[in-house]
């Protein structure tokens, strides 16, 4: 384990409602219980797994019942961090980079004057420095705030002398009642790359997104809020972003769900990914000393 042991983490003092537990796979998790919500955050991947406000009958996030909780593997659920590349890379092997499969450091746990809990984490420097594939010097931090709504910020800093090419995403899985009764708006005017057609470029459709089969698109020139309307759960989730000009929408549908060992074949019906990203034409180049923050808030 790259960060402090579970025993060391548990020996420290934390604000009221913040506890460190031995979670799934025996890996450390941060559990939060404040006046607004309950939440669970994994140090594996530095990602939130669960968020549910006290008044809600359903959680915001989906996590597969068959998700892997193992070092070196990503967790299929919550809001995984794809970094320092999104998807498959022409230069480096492995989908979605290496941040999502490593144990992160817990840097701070705070509660503000309103009762919102903030968890600050960082990817250990040696995970980046010792990665033989990615020859750059950088620091990666995330802040997760849970209160009346959920907010995540991911900050990359170039610590070296050479520019860093960067694609990334907060690969958020939303729980929905029935994918057939879900629509997504806010992307009607955005052209997209279709991953089911070899990343072919397509013009904007002018219509809200609905689902009748596998769906995997990177939307370009995204501005303004994106909304997920879930008729079955009778809720609308509003996604507000900063530092992002692209978004990914994904549902594996029947065949791909059956093919994934860490995903139950029926679960495609109850999830949709809407990812806040710097991907496709929105890739970034960080100059020496430059920082870039990718941030999102989910309100409903």
Topology:
Blueprint (H helix, E strand, L loop, with lengths): L5 H6 L6 E5 L5 E6 L3 E6 L4 E7 L27 E2 L22 E7 L5 E6 L2 H5 L8 E9 L3 E9 L5 E3 L1 E3 L2 E3 L6 E4 L6 E3 L5 E3 L12 E5 L6 E5 L4 E8 L3 E6 L1 H7 L11 E8 L5 E3 L4 E9 L1
Antiparallel strand pairs: 1-2, 2-3, 3-4, 5-11, 6-7, 7-8, 8-9, 9-22, 10-21, 11-20, 12-20, 13-17, 14-15, 14-16, 16-19, 17-18, 18-22, 19-20
* First-last Cα distance: 37 Å
> What is the CA-based Rg, rounded?
18 Å
- Report the top-level CATH class: Mainly Beta
- Averaging pLDDT over every residue, what do you get? 96
Report the uncertain regions: none
Q: Tally the structural domains.
A: 1
| Separate helix tally | 3
CATH topology: Beta-galactosidase, Chain A, domain 5
Largest sheet: 8 strands, antiparallel
Q: What is the approximate shape?
A: globular
How helical, in percent, are the residues?
under 10%
The name of the CATH architecture is Distorted Sandwich
Strand content: 35-45%
Counting DSSP E segments of at least 2 residues, the number of strands comes to 22
Structural class: mainly beta
Query: What's the order of the H and E elements?
Result: HEEEEEEEHEEEEEEEEEEEEHEEE
Label this structure with key terms.
mainly beta, 22 strands, globular, 6% helix, 300 residues, Beta-galactosidase, Chain A, domain 5, eight-stranded antiparallel beta sheet
């Amino acid at each position: 384990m790259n960060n402090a042991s579970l025993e060391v983490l548990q020996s420290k003092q934390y604000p009221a409602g913040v506890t460190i537990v031995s979670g799934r796979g025996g890996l450390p998790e941060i559990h939060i219980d404040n006046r607004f919500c309950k939440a669970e955050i994994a140090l594996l991947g530095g990602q939130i797994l669960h968020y549910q406000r006290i008044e809600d009958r359903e959680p915001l996030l989906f996590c597969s019942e068959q998700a892997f909780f193992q070092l070196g593997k990503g967790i299929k659920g919550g809001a995984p961090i794809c970094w320092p590349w999104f998807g498959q890379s022409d230069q480096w092997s492995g989908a979605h980079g290496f941040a999502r499969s490593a144990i992160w450091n817990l840097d701070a746990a705070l509660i503000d004057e309103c009762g919102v809990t903030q968890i600050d984490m960082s990817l250990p420097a040696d995970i980046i420095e010792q990665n033989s594939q990615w020859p750059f010097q950088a620091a990666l931090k995330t802040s997760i705030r849970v209160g009346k709504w959920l907010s995540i910020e991911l900050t990359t800093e170039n610590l070296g002398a050479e520019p860093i090419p960067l694609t990334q995403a907060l690969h958020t899985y939303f729980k929905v009642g029935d994918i057939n009764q879900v629509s997504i708006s806010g992307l009607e005017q955005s052209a997209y790359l279709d991953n089911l057609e070899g990343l072919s470029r397509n013009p904007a459709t002018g219509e809200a997104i609905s689902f009748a089969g596998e769906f995997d698109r990177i939307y370009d020139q995204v501005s303004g809020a994106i909304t997920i309307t879930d008729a079955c759960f009778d809720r609308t989730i509003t996604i507000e972003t900063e530092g992002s000009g692209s978004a990914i929408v994904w549902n594996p549908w029947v065949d791909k769900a059956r093919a994934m060992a860490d995903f139950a074949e029926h679960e495609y019906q109850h999830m949709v990914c809407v990812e806040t990203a710097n991907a496709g034409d929105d890739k970034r180049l960080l100059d020496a000393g430059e920082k870039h923050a990718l941030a999102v808030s989910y309100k409903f």
